[in-house]
Design brief:
The protein folds into two domains: about 1-40, no CATH class; about 45-240 and about 290-485, Alkaline Phosphatase, subunit A (3-Layer(aba) Sandwich), CATH 3.40.720. It has 14 helices and 17 strands. It has helices spanning about 5-10, 15-20, 25-35, 85-90, 95-100, 135-140, 160-170, 180-185, 250-270, 275-295, 305-310, 320-330, 350-375, 445-455; strands spanning about 65-70, 120-125, 130-135, 145-155, 195-200, 230, 335-340, 380-385, 390-395, 405-410, 415-420, 425-430, 430, 440, 445, 465, 470. Strand 16 (about 465) and strand 17 form a beta hairpin. Helix 2 crosses helix 3 and helix 12 (about 320-330) runs parallel beside helix 13. The chain starts with a helix and ends in a 15-residue tail after the last strand.
């Protein structure tokens, strides 16, 4: 049996449709299967690689830096000041407040649900008078650059579905992440760097925290070229980027050219968009061999910048170092920069672990915003800070004078935004005295996603991809613009 015949016997479903699409079977297949066979063939901008016609209107920002605080930061100890809890401390959460809403299995068996005031004090800061906890002294200095949303709410109550939901618009795995949607729709302004970069940092808290999975930055059903590229700490920030020993630039270039020719032959034969993805990834990796070392070389950063970001900024892989790299990526016009920092899941020992988390992240977070601002980059960059949900007013476990914990709370939590297109010094929304229910201006995860896309010039209802017979979008069939935060 010849090789060509053997390959034909191993056609994938996608390849079969691709072959039919190239010949006389196109009309019949398109009738039977709709536009699925053409899903990867939309006309694209040759400069950016994004879809033609996108952005749909003039964007307010060019890029996003998403600082995801994985685990669910407590709103009680950060931005949602609740002085009434001073008198309610230790009292049972009233049924009139809980309203029969679900709670996790970790506290559903408790015999009592005593309310807990924050152990930390709050003050108003800036001209806006925003309330900020004493745990966030550096963030307090930049509140007039922030839009603080106190009334975020989500559909998920446990970590994995909640973080999957806020990143992909769906609680179950398999959908494209926000960064992948942007990479697909807008492409890249820098042909030597990926459009979507991801960095992870470990918890400052002492308790073990939830894992993070690579599917959170995957492309889902989009072609894999749109997935996030993870940058790691150490000598090889991107895996498999370095040439093997003894392979020079000339031989590497000749090798890639030969492989490209073979791949183009098979792309013509089978019409599989993943072959085109492989070609583009090889080329991007070749260009990144120069651009990534330059990005990671911090030797030209002056001492005052390291001092600005804090003592851990010189240590690769820390949150502070990743914040500094996020600024450098923004300077290089990377479209979507995703930072994940673990450690915000304080079911117990909250006073100790939350203080450690804030001490490790507060200064570099504020420094990133201030650094972007002093370089003129904040005007066309959107910075987003927050986790996947909030924490309960009632104590998980035993309440003592100096210690307590808080369970997951999806009904309301806090996120903030800074940068182009959003109002400065605004605090949006109110919750009840228990920070248990939204009183005014609720903002869903879908609403936030729709608004982020809007700031990038995208109508969230029009950025779609046909898969399995229907058009999918990040916001599914939901999402309204949060007009009150738009500048």
């Amino acid at each position: 049996m010849n090789i060509e015949r053997e390959l034909d016997l191993h056609l994938t479903r996608r390849q079969l449709f691709g072959l039919g699409a190239k010949g006389i079977g196109l009309a019949a297949l398109s009738t039977l299967f709709g536009r699925d066979i053409l899903a990867g063939t939309q006309e694209r901008d040759p400069k950016t690689g994004g879809l033609t016609g996108v952005p749909h209107f003039a964007p307010k920002v060019k890029r996003v830096i998403f600082l995801h605080q994985s685990g669910g930061p407590s709103q009680f100890e950060t931005f949602d000041y609740k002085p009434a809890l001073d008198k309610l401390h230790g009292s049972e959460l009233p049924d009139s407040i809980r309203k029969g809403q679900r709670i996790t299995g970790m506290t559903s068996g408790q015999k009592a649900f005593p309310c807990v005031k924050s152990l930390y004090s709050f003050k108003q800061h800036g001209q806006s008078g925003a309330w900020v906890s004493e745990l966030l002294p550096y963030t307090a200095k930049i509140v007039d650059d922030l839009t603080i949303i106190k009334t975020m709410h989500t559909d998920a109550i446990n970590h994995d579905p909640a973080i999957t939901f806020i990143q992909t618009g769906f609680q179950q795995p398999g959908r494209p992440s926000l960064g992948a949607w942007l990479s697909y729709g807008l492409g890249s302004e820098n042909q030597n760097m990926p459009a979507f970069v991801v960095m992870l940092s470990q918890a400052h808290a002492l308790n073990t925290d939830q894992p993070l999975f690579s599917r959170l930055w995957s492309s889902g059903f989009l072609p894999s070229k749109y997935q996030g590229v993870r940058f790691r700490a150490g000598a090889n920030p991107v895996l498999y980027l370095k040439d093997p020993q003894g392979v020079g630039k000339t031989s590497r270039r000749e090798m890639l050219d030969a492989v490209m020719q073979l791949n183009k032959i098979k792309s013509t034969d089978y019409g599989d968009p993943e072959i085109e993805t492989r070609i583009s990834q090889y080329e991007m990796a070749y260009r990144m061999q120069t651009s990534v070392p330059d990005l990671m070389d911090l030797s030209k950063e002056p001492d005052h910048i390291f001092e600005m970001y804090g003592p851990e900024s010189r240590k690769p892989g820390t949150y502070a170092a990743n914040c500094l790299l996020a600024r450098r990526l923004a300077e290089r016009d990377v479209r979507f920069i995703q930072l994940y920092h673990r450690g915000w899941d304080q079911h117990n020992d909250l006073p100790r672990d939350l203080a450690l988390q804030c001490r490790g992240t507060d200064q570099p977070t504020a420094a990133l915003v201030a650094d972007l601002k002093q370089r003129g980059l904040l005007d066309d960059t959107l910075v987003v800070w927050g986790g996947e949900f909030g924490r309960t007013v009632y104590c998980q476990g035993k309440l003592t004078e100096a210690n307590y914990g808080r369970d997951h709370h999806p009904r309301n939590f806090v996120m903030w935004l800074a940068g182009g297109g959003v109002k400065k010094g605004l605090s949006l929304g109110e919750t009840d005295d228990y920070s248990y229910n939204v009183v005014s201006d609720p903002v869903s995860v879908y609403d936030l996603q729709a608004t982020l896309l809007h700031l990038l010039g995208i109508d969230h209802k029009r950025l779609t991809y046909r898969f399995q017979g229907r058009d999918f979008r990040l916001t599914d069939v939901h999402g309204e613009l949060v007009d009150k935060i738009l500048a």
